[in-house]
Design a protein that fits this description.
This protein is an all-alpha fold. Helices cover about 75% and strands about 0% of the residues. The chain has helices at about 1-25, 30-45, 45-50, 55-75, 85-110, 115-125, 145-175, 185-215, 225-245, 250-260, 280-305, 310-320, 325-335, 340-350, 355-365, 370-395, 395-405, 410-415, 425-435. The longest helix has about 35 residues, at about 185-215.
């Protein structure tokens, strides 16, 4: 473990020194950490499975997911639950996402007839949700229409929060390492978990934001204390919810939504409102650091999966999940919308997998009994994310050029000014909107 910590810290330090130069070559932190994790895994192959399937790894993964869900829930601007274009976002989240999950389970049942449906549901929850960590440059590319980037941003921010209750239900139904349950027993456990999560998350998110508003108006807080409290909010919510036998992940996500809608921009001494973006700087930096650690351990998982051989049905299922099982549901969900067929194809193709899939995959690997089920879940996560890194990370610019509409067909984009230097839904933009 000491050796692993030395490698992680050294690699992150080295990446930090040359991050600007590497980004100019379209090399992002996830790629660097995956490579480092892979190289390290080659020299510590016999210890990988034990490290990934340990109690410490499980707790670390749970905390990372709680913070990730909170950050995702607070990042969406526009003053609406589903961003600036709620109708299109709802099509992606409430129609296309369930369709993708169902089709993945159906195809998995055909390709992997030996797996129970509940394990296939777990795998679908792992490989279907999107995340822009491996392809962040996509949401900055002005060749992609703004409404497409907006839908992708909202979908990436919300789909993990929507899938997590279903994931927990599948974990309970599949059983821990000691006991499996019937669907009704799993539902009887999952529903109270979710209800408690909704109540605790909404209460603590609104309460923390309200207390911050009061403290700001009384000038009791400092910039540092605000940032610290924002970081503490998801951790407090997660631990409190788990203590009362609730779903801490759902609670952290709901906490972020409630916090976002109650929190007001801090007030400076001279009466003007200060941007709230700085409140989130610490939690975003912490989340970024924890995400890098997850990508390192993903590199370990790649070595473990590839060394034991590729299960071709799992490989085909992951390829389908990255392509047709996403493109077809998006095309169906956007029938009758304002999106052209090219834009629908862009939404379908530009759906990278990242940290969410890694976290869900490691949680499933820890929760399932050791053996073929746990190994298959880990292999599916590894192949889906690795394929996404190659397709959406290394090939993201080629995809953008290939799918971008002709200049004459996107006058709005041509007249929108110079290229963006940050995502259209960046925290700075959100702070200006709140102010």
């Amino acid at each position: 473990m000491t050796f692993v910590l030395i490698v992680i810290t050294a690699v992150v330090a080295g990446w930090s020194l040359v991050a600007g130069r590497l980004e100019g070559w379209h090399v992002r932190a996830p790629m660097v950490l995956v490579l480092a994790g892979g190289v390290t895994g080659v020299f510590s192959h016999s210890q990988i499975a034990g490290a990934l399937n340990s109690e410490i790894a499980l707790r670390v993964v749970e905390v990372i997911l709680a913070v990730l869900l909170f950050v995702d829930a607070t990042e969406l601007p526009g003053g609406r639950l589903f961003g600036r274009d709620p109708g299109s976002a709802a099509r992606a989240l409430l129609v296309a996402l369930p369709l993708s999950l169902i089709l993945t389970v159906v195809l998995g049942a055909w390709l992997l007839p030996g797996l129970p449906l509940v394990v296939l549901l777990l795998i679908a929850c792992i490989i279907v949700p999107t995340d822009f960590a491996p392809a962040e440059l996509l949401v900055r590319d002005r060749r992609i229409p703004e409404k497409v980037r907006s839908v992708l941003n909202v979908e990436s921010g919300y789909n993990d929060g929507i899938v997590s209750p279903l994931f927990l239900f599948a974990v309970i139904l599949a059983g821990s390492k000691s006991q499996a349950r019937t669907p009704m027993e799993a539902l009887a456990t999952a529903v109270p978990f979710a209800v408690k999560a909704l109540a605790v998350g909404a209460l603590l998110g609104a309460l923390v934001a309200w207390l911050m508003n009061l403290a700001d108006r009384a000038y009791w807080m400092t910039e540092q204390s605000r940032r610290t409290l924002v970081l503490i909010a998801p951790l407090l919510t997660y631990t409190t919810t788990v203590a009362v036998d609730g779903n801490g992940f759902v609670a952290a996500f709901v906490c972020g939504i409630a916090f976002r809608y109650v929190r007001q921009a801090p007030v400076r001494r001279h009466g003007a409102q200060a941007p709230a973006a700085s409140d989130f700087q610490l939690i975003e930096d912490t989340n970024s650091m924890m995400t890098m650690v997850m990508w390192f351990f993903f590199g370990n998982a790649v070595v473990l999966a590839l060394s034991e051989g590729i299960d071709w049905p799992v490989f085909l299922l992951c390829v389908a999940a990255l392509t047709i099982l996403r493109i077809l549901p998006i095309a169906l969900a956007f029938l009758g919308s304002r999106f052209s067929w090219r834009e629908r194809l862009m939404v379908g193709v530009l759906g990278p997998r990242g940290t969410t899939s890694i976290v869900f995959g490691l949680l499933a690997f820890n929760a399932l009994p050791l053996g073929s089920f746990a190994d298959t879940a880990l292999d599916a996560m590894t192949l889906a994310v690795l394929g996404s890194v190659l397709l959406h990370g290394g090939g993201s610019m080629a995809l953008a050029r290939l799918l971008a509409p002709p200049p004459s067909s996107s006058p709005a984009a041509d007249s929108a000014g110079p290229p963006l230097t940050k995502p259209p839904h960046s925290r700075a933009d959100a702070g200006r909107e709140r102010a």
